[in-house]
Design a protein that fits this description.
The protein is built from 17 helices and 29 strands. The strands form 9 sheets. Strands 2-1-3-6-11-8-12-10-9 form a 9-stranded mixed beta sheet, sandwiched between helices. The protein has a 5-stranded mixed beta sheet with strand order 14-16-19-22-23. It has 2 domains: 364 residues, no CATH class; 202 residues, no CATH class. Helices cover 29% and strands 24% of the residues. This is Fucose-1-phosphate guanylyltransferase. It comes from Entomortierella parvispora. Pfam families: Fucose_pyrophosphorylase. Keywords: Nucleotide-binding, Nucleotidyltransferase, Transferase.
Length: 602
């Protein structure tokens, strides 16, 4: 299979040596993976005395879901993994969904989970349990290929595993070394963040009660401007002294948080003394300490359980921005008195302060935080970032920038032309897909559950995946990895108008992508929502077979590619390259959102 030679020349970095921090984190992850395998092995043992007594695991694992349908979908996948022995059976697994017609956000969901656990378990058990809480509710609009199964079941390539590793399994692995010293309580994380921590980062054996302990990672000021940033109480300069050590010698520095800044501007960070740490040891870049996971003790969990009973169901609280900023007194301004978010934020902050909860920060200089919440971030992580790939044991066998999950990815067929192989540009992610001879996949593409036939051409920056949404109904989605899935246009008028304003592949009007005639008339009479986006617009054809669905998608890509290649966009005619409005292969139309919901029920 030919690989773009120009791009091959850019792979000199593949041979570079990892820095010491990456080596430390890689070794810690390897130890955690070995521990996880021992726990799985002991799970299979019928003799209690054969269990590995020294390997501690979570007592309770909670995954949040956006609604009942998503809960049932998650539960089916967890039950399957348990039946196959893929995750430890010794933990109690719960999927807890948000109430119907609510919008409580991850912050409200945290309080809800505490209330559910408080009702379900005895005080004696919950006060000694170690709980892993993974926020995974809602649709993965920015990572649409996992929108049906859920982002917590996103698959990453893995050494010695052709099926890769799911994020859920990874989350169960990542923090195992912390459990050696972690006291009872709740450890909260998100499904789209990957945190790697040194083994010399123990929890205090007996943390203060009524305390939230948040993990802090060194980050650039640019990253700090899009995350939460801590102002630390570090009068003894312990943080800076630890920074001067080699990564293998760096440990956890526990300090108090004086202020939590949510997405502060660079000017604001510069104005507050102590937020920015100057570069040291040849590192010219200034750093700040940013948020990710956090832990809270059983007493704080009970406070949160009580808070749940007073929160509005449309409070839409965020588990980081709204929870970690509770120390700041933020009275509701008169103009925002009726705002459910401000009301919920005020209730949460007041209750935590009245309970005298404190916010501590565990500074982890030997750590990294990666975000895999968008298509580009995902491709960057599994195909480009050599440190991330080495630290998480991601090994792409065919080429470092071709990530493969699933068997039988490429088929070579004799055609008599002398060029029987597919052509792959870099980077590309392929999951459970077949690329046939003479197909061409351009760079920065995600291909999931889709067979690319002979002579298929996939444009650059394409995310393509196929979903089965009913017994005999399939849809193959195509979108640019750079598209803003949530960007809305007015939809409360005839479909003909908003089809021209809604853009796909960044600049192509959707009207040029869809078959002419039938869809416009359908939308004109369907009273569409006030606003529509690529996520909600029913602009993708449904077919009765997977093959027909993929063929329709390829024809759709032909129209998109034709539009992208035309400089005279004003002179483009809607009739160009359009299918017949009575194409018998099309049995319906759907959107990303609608298809994700339908696929979850199968």
């Amino acid at each position: 299979m030919p690989i773009d030679q120009h791009q091959q020349s850019s792979q000199a970095s593949d041979s570079m040596h990892l820095d010491e921090l990456s080596n430390v984190l890689r070794d810690v992850h390897a130890q955690n993976m070995a521990t996880f395998q021992r726990i799985l092995t002991s799970d299979r043992s019928t003799l209690e005395e054969n269990r590995a007594a020294t390997d501690r695991f979570w007592d309770i694992v909670v995954i949040t879901a956006g609604d009942l349908q998503q809960r049932l979908c998650y539960q089916r996948q967890i039950d399957f993994k348990l039946s196959k022995g893929q995750i430890p059976r010794q933990a109690k697994y719960h999927v807890i969904e948000d109430p119907p017609k609510s919008k409580i956000g991850s912050g409200g969901s945290t309080c809800l989970v505490m209330n559910v656990l408080n009702d379900q378990y005895s005080d004696d058990f919950i006060s000694t349990a170690r709980v892993l809480l993974i926020h995974a509710g809602g649709y993965s609009t920015r990572l649409p290929h996992v929108s049906a199964r859920g982002k917590v079941f996103t698959i990453l390539p893995q050494v010695n595993s052709p099926d890769g590793i799911q994020v859920l399994d990874l989350k169960l692995v990542l923090y195992l070394h912390l459990l050696k010293s972690m006291p009872p309580g709740v450890f909260l994380t998100s499904a789209d963040g990957i945190e790697l921590l040194s083994s010399k980062a123990p929890f205090p054996s007996d943390p203060k009660p009524l305390t939230i302990t948040s993990l802090a990672h060194p980050s650039s000021t640019a990253i700090g401007s899009t995350h939460g940033v801590y102002l630390l109480q570090d009068t003894s300069d312990l943080v800076q002294a630890d920074r001067a050590l080699q990564p293998k010698d760096q440990s956890a520095i526990l300090t108090q948080c004086l202020e939590f800044l949510h997405k502060p501007s660079l000017d604001r960070m510069k104005r507050i003394p102590g937020v920015i740490f100057n570069g040291i040891s040849g590192d010219k870049d200034d750093i700040v300490y940013t948020d990710s996971c956090y832990y809270f003790d059983p007493q704080t969990a009970k406070v949160m359980a009580k808070i749940w009973k007073t929160l509005p169901l449309d409070c839409d609280l965020e588990a980081w921005a709204d929870v970690l900023s509770f120390q700041q007194d933020s009275p509701i301004s008169p103009s925002l008195i009726g705002d459910p978010h401000q009301q919920g934020r005020h209730i949460l902050s007041e209750a935590l302060r009245e309970a005298k909860v404190k916010l501590d920060v565990m500074v982890l200089n030997a750590s990294k935080f990666y975000h895999l919440g968008t298509m580009l971030e995902f491709l960057e992580g599994v195909c480009i970032d050599r440190a991330f790939m080495a630290e998480l044991h991601i090994q792409n066998h065919l080429h470092p920038q071709i990530a493969q999950v699933g068997a039988h990815t490429f088929q070579h067929e004799k055609t008599g032309t002398g060029n029987d192989s597919a052509v792959i540009e870099l980077p590309v992610y392929l999951e459970n897909s077949v690329v046939h001879a003479q197909a061409k996949v351009h760079a920065w593409s995600l291909v999931v559950d889709t067979d690319l036939g002979e002579n298929t051409i996939l444009p650059a920056n394409t995310c393509i995946f196929t979903l089965q949404i009913r017994e005999q109904a399939y849809v193959t989605f195509t979108v640019s990895v750079k598209d803003d899935m949530k960007k809305e246009v007015e939809g409360n008028e005839s479909g003909k108008h908003w089809l021209h304003r809604l853009r796909i592949y960044e600049n192509v009007p959707v009207a040029r992508m869809v078959p002419g005639g039938a869809l416009e008339s359908r939308l004109s009479s369907s009273n569409p929502d006030k606003k529509v986006s690529l996520w909600t617009a029913p602009i993708f054809e449904v077919a009765s077979t997977k093959t027909e669905s993929i063929n329709l998608a390829m024809e759709r890509l032909d129209r998109i590619r034709d539009s992208l290649s035309r400089s005279d966009t004003m002179g483009w005619k809607d009739s160009n390259l359009l299918q017949s409005s009575t194409d018998s292969r099309i049995i319906g139309w759907t959107s990303f959102k609608e298809a994700a919901r339908s696929a979850r029920d199968l």
